[in-house]
Design a protein that fits this description.
Blueprint lengths: L6 H14 L4 H8 L3 H9 L6 H10 L12 H6 L1
Helix pairs in contact: 2-3, 2-4
Length: 79
Amino acid sequence: MFTDLPIQRVTSVLRFSAREAGMSQEKLAAKVGMSQSAVGRRLSGDTPLTLADLDAIATACGMRVSISFAEIETLAAAS
């Protein structure tokens, strides 16, 4: 079920947020303590994005991570 989460949406938001914050991958990498290539791989989806990575990158871009789970009525009715 959770293997189908749209990680591409998350990385797209992170890339957009970094651009909006005026952060190049190089600046972002320095701020989160990773190499530029490590940040690039995470933002492209080539390397899995951990919750710690997500939090660090979002924070560096001036954002806060908030995760919630809610039951979707149509899925509950189908079960």
